[in-house]
Design goal:
mainly alpha, three-stranded antiparallel beta sheet
Length: 153
């Protein structure tokens, strides 16, 4: 199933049709925990390109892992698997790197760092960031994506 809470959002509808199709195909082929074992195979089957995968990653509809597996972040919003039908994912290492917040998967580092990094009064105003030198989020995702998939293929 696909929830209108996800697929009717402007964030989802702003993506190219090919990226949306890739999301739907991942949803159809994911295991009971939302993990997709062969995203490249699915991409080739439907004619999706690397840019479609990058869009899904950048917009946080999926989380890629170095093993080549991806997980659909909103899996628990889109799907409810009956307990008597449920088969736990084979990707336990990747699953252990995730937490569920508001029905969405998030990387443990991502959620814990947002809660743990607090600045005291002593540090306020003393830290500056040169935005021109900081890499963009898309550049970081692209770097991660290329290194993760070069190792797999």
């Amino acid at each position: 199933m696909f929830s209108p809470k996800i697929i009717d959002t402007d964030n989802f509808l702003d993506m190219p049709v090919s990226a949306r199709e890739l999301y739907f195909q991942f949803g159809m082929r994911a295991d009971d925990d939302g993990f997709v074992s062969s995203p490249k195979r699915i991409m080739k089957m439907i004619g999706a390109g690397d840019d479609d995968l990058k869009v899904l990653i950048a917009k946080r509809f999926i989380i890629p892992f170095k093993s080549g597996v991806v997980v659909i972040t909103s899996w628990h919003i889109n799907n409810l698997v009956r307990k008597d039908w449920y088969h736990e994912t084979a990707y336990q290492d990747e699953k252990n790197m995730l937490t569920i917040e508001n029905g969405k998967y998030k990387l443990v580092d991502e959620s814990s760092t947002s809660r743990q990094h607090r600045l005291g009064k002593v540090r306020l105003g003393k830290v500056t960031i040169d935005v021109a030198k900081a890499p963009s989020f898309f550049a970081l995702v692209q770097k991660y994506f290329t290194t993760a998939y070069k190792q797999k293929f």
